[in-house]
Design goal:
It contains nine helices and six strands; from the N terminus they run ααβααβααβααβββα. The chain is of the alpha/beta class and 278 residues long. It has one domain: Rossmann fold, CATH 3.40.50.
Length: 278
């Protein structure tokens, strides 16, 4: 074999190796499912419900255009609903906002650059103190800041609930009693069997709906004046069902969680910011 042939073979082999490495680099990581119910009917039902609540990236209309430099500061949670305030914090909301604003191609400056001065930075903008705010804007990367953005929760409440159910025990008792009054052994036995069967039938369904509202504010980083504001709200439904008959039962429970609801509200707000104020 000639040296030219050897070189061609080496080049071809290296090309194949690079292609394989490229494929490995591009491929998404795959994870197994160790659940003992994986693939079962209950697993499929639960996963279908979870897929509806899973994170869905938003196609921001102006994502191809770079946005100005901004800092997200933790907003306020005006609601006093304990279920909400124990699960969602202002820092959670600010973290979601940084992710989504970055996806929309805004230049998001890290809050961590402020270090222990973050609280004073927030106060300067919440109080509208431009002189104090400018002290912070002279620090490192913050010199390029154009906007300060905050997201507030104005509403978080359970606005409605409904439930209905069926309990076959009363009807089952009536069937057994009717058999007993038939004055025959066969009728009594049939009534007893029917009574047990009907009495075992139970069905329950309950639904709760939340209403969560979010406001965003865009503040001029130099003057602390409000540039724009907007408000959006979403319903969040949580439901549960249970059926049982003749010793066989089935139940389901699901809905969008509070963290997911907040993230979706942030996405709606960022979509509006990207559309109107970039």
């Amino acid at each position: 074999m000639t040296s030219a042939s050897l070189r061609r073979g080496a080049v071809a082999a290296s090309s194949v190796a690079l292609a394989m490495l490229g494929t490995l680099a591009v491929a998404q990581p795959q994870f197994g499912n160790p659940s003992p119910t994986a693939g079962s009917k209950t697993s499929q039902q639960a996963n279908q419900a979870a897929d509806q609540a899973a994170y869905q990236p938003v196609a921001y209309v102006n994502a191809s255009r770079p946005g100005p430099a901004l800092v997200v500061i933790p907003g306020e949670i005006k609601s006093n609903n304990a279920d909400f305030t124990t699960k969602v914090t202002a820092n959670n909301i600010a973290d979601f906002a940084e992710v989504e604003l970055s996806s929309a191609n805004f230049q998001v400056l890290e809050r961590s650059n402020l270090g222990p001065l973050l609280r004073e930075f927030e106060l300067a903008y919440n109080l509208g103190d431009p002189q104090q705010a400018r002290k912070f804007l002279g620090m490192g990367k913050l010199k390029t800041t154009k906007y300060v953005v905050k997201f507030d929760i104005l509403k978080a409440e359970k606005i409605a609930s409904a439930q209905q159910g069926f309990d076959g025990r009363a009807i089952g008792d009536m069937a057994a009693l009717a058999g007993a009054f038939s004055r025959s052994w066969g009728g009594a036995q049939a009534g007893a069997v029917a009574g047990r069967g009907i009495g075992s039938v139970q069905s329950n369904e309950a639904t709760t709906v939340w209403l969560v509202g979010m406001r965003y504010k865009i503040i001029n980083a130099e003057t602390t004046e409000q540039v724009a504001t907007g408000y959006t709200e979403e319903k969040m439904e949580i439901g549960a069902t249970r059926q049982a008959a003749l010793g066989v039962s089935q139940s389901q429970q699901g809905g969008v969680g509070l963290d997911t609801m907040v993230q979706r509200l942030v996405q709606k707000s960022v979509w509006e910011i990207d559309s109107k104020y970039k």
